[in-house]
């Protein structure tokens, strides 16, 4: 029997956006994931409370986006996962240790490995 990990109306939130629904989350991952290169994710802390149905993680993340200017993204933060009595996730809430404006700047700043073409 296939039991999905996420409740269909699970809440997903980060410093930029909050929404409900697994289908939108999957679409977001498909869109962004196709651009991510050299991904490094390190889980630095993990705490689970079975009684409360909550899993808290701390992590650091780094990747390069496969865009023409090769921006590098880097952040650390945490994710709170809340599960219901059927062990399905009902909340997936990220917190970042970086100002969202700084994260946006990373998206537009050319990466170190960007190839230089032409010029003087």
TrEMBL record:
Organism from which the protein derives: Chloropicon roscoffensis
Protein name: DUF2358 domain-containing protein
A Pfam match: DUF2358
């Amino acid at each position: 029997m296939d039991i999905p990990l996420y409740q269909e109306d699970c809440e997903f939130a980060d410093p930029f956006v909050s929404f409900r629904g697994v289908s939108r989350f999957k679409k977001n991952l498909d869109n962004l994931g196709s651009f991510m290169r050299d991904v490094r994710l390190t889980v630095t802390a993990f705490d689970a409370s079975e009684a409360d149905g909550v899993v808290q993680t701390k992590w650091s993340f780094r990747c390069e986006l496969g865009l023409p200017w090769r921006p590098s993204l880097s952040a650390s933060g945490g994710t709170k996962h809340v599960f219901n009595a059927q062990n399905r996730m009902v909340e997936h809430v990220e917190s970042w240790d970086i100002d969202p404006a700084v994260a946006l700047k990373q998206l537009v700043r050319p990466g170190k490995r960007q190839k230089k073409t032409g010029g003087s």
